[in-house]
Amino acid sequence: MPYELKLPEGLKKAGWKVKIRDAERLEDPHVTIMRKCDVWRLSLRTCSLLELGRVWRQIDESVRAAIKAECEALKAAWNARYPKNPISSKNDDESD
Predict the structure, then answer these.
(1) Which of 5, 40, 78, 83 is the S-S candidate for 33 at Cβ 3.0 to 4.6 Å?
(2) Total-model pTM
């Protein structure tokens, strides 16, 4: 079952959803942002959108604020769901 970020009722009624979907264990860690048929994928490593042509301002300001406020919870949810593909690893933290 996918992890879904709880959004205020008004955003849900407007068609917004933010999820970590199932069966994405081999992909770059990301959260999927949806509004009706529109989809954006936001990297949890770089905080950038993964699709060319998609921009952060296309996403409702309140949805963006909810994602920013719950960023650590989203990262924890990804790591719990996909422990073999964590957001960061020991190698990421080491500097030369």
Answers:
(1) 40
(2) 0.87
